[in-house]
Amino acid sequence: MAASLQGDTLAARRRTWFTLGDRSMKWIRWKYVLPRLVLVLLTAAGFRWGLDPLLKWTLVTVGESAVGAKVEVASIESSLAAGTIQIHDLCVANPNAALKNLLEAEYAQLQLDMDALSRRRFVIKNGLVTGIQLGTHRTRSGILEKRPPEATDEKAFLSPWIDSVDQALSDWLDQFDNRLSNDFAAELKTPQVAQELEQRWPQQYEDLTAQIKNIKSQGQQLEQDLRKLRKNPFRYATELQALQTKLATAQQDLLTLQQEIAQIPQQAEADRQSLQSARQEDEQFLRQKLQIADLDQDGLTQTLLGEPTSQALSSALEWLAWVRNKVPSGNVHTSMERSRGTQVLFTAAQPRYLIQHLQLTGTALWAGQNLDLKGELHNACSEPQWLSEPMRLELAGSGKSEVSAVAILDRRNEVAEDNLEIACRDFSLPGQIIGNSEKLALEIMPSLAYLHVDLSISEDNLQGEIVLSQQSISLKPIQSMSHSKQLVATLDQALGNLEQWEASVKIVGTLQKPHLEIRSDLGKQVAQGMQIAIKDFFNRRKDALLEKTNQEVTARMQRLQKIRNQAQQELLASLGESQEIFNQLATLSPNNKSGLTIPKLSKSLRSPSLFKK
Prior knowledge:
Blueprint: H1 2-27, H2 30-67, E1 71-79, E2 84-93, E3 101-112, H3 114-118, E4 122-134, H4 154-157, H5 161-181, H6 189-231, H7 240-262, H8 264-289, H9 297-326, E5 353-366, E6 369-381, E7 391-398, E8 402-410, E9 417-429, E10 432-435, E11 441-444, E12 447-458, E13 461-470, E14 475-478, H10 485-495, E15 501-510, E16 514-520, H11 522-577, H12 579-588, H13 598-604
Parallel strand pairs: 4-5
Antiparallel strand pairs: 1-2, 2-3, 3-4, 5-6, 6-7, 7-8, 8-9, 9-12, 10-11, 11-14, 12-13, 13-15, 15-16
Helix pairs in contact: 5-9, 6-7, 6-8, 6-11, 6-12, 8-11, 9-11, 10-11
């Protein structure tokens, strides 16, 4: 009985529950609820599976519009619950180079401010970007549309004095090369004077010998006539007058010959003086021809440091110019004074897009060296005038070189003010060749230096300073087939002892046309070393050329002296044979006033040597 009653009670309860359930189901307006429920589910599904493609499309579109080149993203993963966005394999092409990327990043994780996002502001509180690579190559062009290349004045950008100074130094080296390649031996006067003497003296002695033979012949003829006259004076009395005339003529010829012979020592002394004067003129000639103008020390400094300084500056200025064009400017609105009403304070305006803090890691190519890069980006936004701090980028690179860079871009006021500071230890200075390698050139070997760059830009006005310092610099002369090893060794020794140097580069002007002023003692050290070495080399070359010429002239004069001595002996022998005849002729002449006898004649032929010192 009890069991039956319990079963009836349970059945009654079930009927009551079903009845209430049917009534509650009837109270729900399914035609109103179901469409909205479907919409909510579709919205949730859209956020779940469609948000990532939408974010990817937005990033690519906005990025390409800002950069002006292709932006490629492999994938994006977002989580609204965690407020994070993950980006994989980001690639931004370089708008100025078709086959180069501006940057690549393997992975980026961004932490969003969800409260700001609910107010339609995109704020990245913290972020991390890893695997950054700058200036990488790509297989396809990343430029969106073809644009005509901008006309740039490279000479003005790199300062106009670089090319002119390089040309001046090349001209100086060419001038030095011309001095070396020219053979001045043919233009020296000493060999010419010696050759003239070598031709004149033998001819003079031949003339004297011919005169002696003629006088001897006359004497022999007069001797025969004299003997005939002595045998029969009366028979040849009519011939006496003619004999006296011939005798007077012979006496005059003898007197003339004696005078010529008496002048031989004086002529020999004059010839020696001519040779000495020719030597002095040759020394002056060689000293003048082997002299080159002093090297422009300041110009050499510009040549040695202008190229690496300009390369570093041009890279920095190009980067700054590009960034300045992309960073939003601050449009400051002047508040108007109220004339009536009540002032109501609202929340301060905030930028629509803001990156508060972003960590950066990756690699970068700096001065030909791969560096591990770390850095931070602060306060990058769309409306910088609404922030209390300017945009700041800090980078540090480590590897063979230690590099640190800080860039501050302030757009909070009407005038844009930017500052870039770079410090680098072991900065790589590239090698270069100055001059014509086929003639004479100098090779500046690659080296390391300390570099510090401090640039400030206000609106478009540029000013700053670049400091370069180095313990030593290596310069090598390039040897060609036309130059001696002695010259190369001389220059190598002179350029091998350069001391520590430091250069200060003052920068003024604009971003488009910067002007540089380099001050350094490097050019002075190199110029003085080269000039001392070259002058010493030229002096040795001059002395060697004069010594060679003197040896050739001495050999000629020795041969000439030998000919002279032989001719002198023959001349004295010929006069000795006719001495008795002339003595007899002298006794026949009552008016003999020659004043020079045969012994004196013999003595006069012993003239001094040309080699008298």
